[in-house]
UniProtKB/TrEMBL annotation:
The lineage of its organism: Bacteria, Pseudomonadati, Pseudomonadota, Betaproteobacteria, Nitrosomonadales. GO terms for molecular function: protein histidine phosphatase activity. SUPFAM superfamilies: Phosphoglycerate mutase-like (SSF53254). Substrate binds at R83. One of its GO terms (cellular component) is cytoplasm. This is Phosphohistidine phosphatase, SixA. CDD domains: HP_PGM_like (cd07067). It comes from the Bacteria. InterPro entries: His_Pase_superF_clade-1, His_PPase_superfam, Phosphatase_SH3-domain, SixA. Pfam families: His_Phos_1.
Length: 193
């Protein structure tokens, strides 16, 4: 289910609007990873070909979305787990932005909602648009905590399925880690594109 607080969640069809929100947090879960190799640790699991395709697809969606925003992504914080790094590289490539805005943050791997909040507080200073790429269940918990209007889960009780992303708006207020202050603008899952 494509969730959106606005009428049309396809950024390609929206007209440019100068009054768009000034501050936003984008939360993205890593794309589908490979469980087939038993000798790899969870940390070292690579993306599947389906996961790579979904990461590229979401990167393209994000690129179209950002065309209509006042500010591009200023900073990306990403788990150093292989599947998250590969997702990040594919998204950065689709966005055609410099990799030097990416911080591989060990604290994201296995992070609780509280740990993610602390990382967002640390990395969002002076930033208009922050992208975090990580793992569940922490990201689902974070989305519910920050959003004024938590979205419905899918039939597997997940909000952020693999490669899904959520865009939280803070309007003219800086990115905040206070509960229920952000407006959920989009929740996009690859299968819905």
């Amino acid at each position: 289910m494509k969730y959106t607080a606005t009428k049309n969640s396809n950024p390609i069809n929206r007209s440019h609007n100068k009054a768009m929100p000034k501050y936003q947090l984008i939360i993205m879960r890593h794309a589908k990873s490979d469980w087939s190799e038993d000798n790899r640790s969870d940390f070292d699991r690579p993306l599947t070909s389906r996961g790579m395709k979904a990461a590229r697809q979401m990167g393209k969606w994000l690129k179209q979305f950002l065309k209509h925003e006042q500010y591009p992504i200023d900073r990306i914080i990403c788990s150093p787990a292989l599947r998250a790094k590969q997702t990040c590289h594919l998204v950065v490539s689709a966005l055609n932005i410099p990799e030097n805005i990416v911080n591989f943050e060990p604290g994201i791997y296995g992070a609780s909602c509280d740990n993610l909040i602390a990382l967002i507080e640390r990395y969002s200073k002076g930033v208009h648009s922050l992208l975090i790429i990580g793992h569940n269940p922490g990201l689902d918990q974070l989305l519910c905590y920050l959003s004024q209007n938590p979205p419905p889960a899918n039939n597997c009780a997940k909000l952020l399925t693999t490669a899904a992303l959520a865009v939280l708006d803070y309007g003219s207020s800086v990115i905040s880690v206070n509960a229920h202050e952000a407006q959920l603008r989009y929740l996009i899952r690859p299968r819905e594109l």
